[in-house]
Predict the structure.
Amino acid sequence: MSAIDLLERPKTNETPAAGCPVDHSRFYGYQKTTRVVEPPDRPIEQDANGLWHVRDFELARAVLRSTDVKQAGFKAEIIEKIPSMMTNPPILYMEGKDHLEQRKQTARYFTPATTSKNYRDFMTDLADQLIDEVRTRRSADLSKVTMTLAVNVAARVVGLTDSRVPGMDKRLDAFFAEGTGEFRPTPRGIFEFLRGQMNVLGFLYL
């Protein structure tokens, strides 16, 4: 049975049981990449490239909760270079006490009860819409489907009612795909700089 076969099952009004309704054992043979087996006897180690691998759950949670850990990715390296230009940096780029305080202020918007009451119907309807599109096309890029779902739900949660939600996933991809912001006085460098500025404007104003 393929994923498309599952999608083509008729819809019912029955309330599904708790848990994922898909029998994942049916798809164990579909994996095309080699499964990576992590060594259980090494909860933490540093590889030849200097990259740390944390495999122990409690240790990983302690690392993520540590106030000594700093944000990496999502253009954090650029934000660090221009702190004076941002009076109130986004929570994603805050560190330490400021970050914890903002998390306390926003936590009430993401409780299970709030999510179920305010967003569950929207998420269900959107998921059904995306599945119908997959049925029609008979194929889909799962990363794009999930990105569309995530972006639309996030936009609803944070109140982006005046933004153009269609295409927001592509604008986000373009925004985060830019380099480190280093300007090079060459034709290619100037082109990349201008393209980056256009992506930022598209992200902020559309």
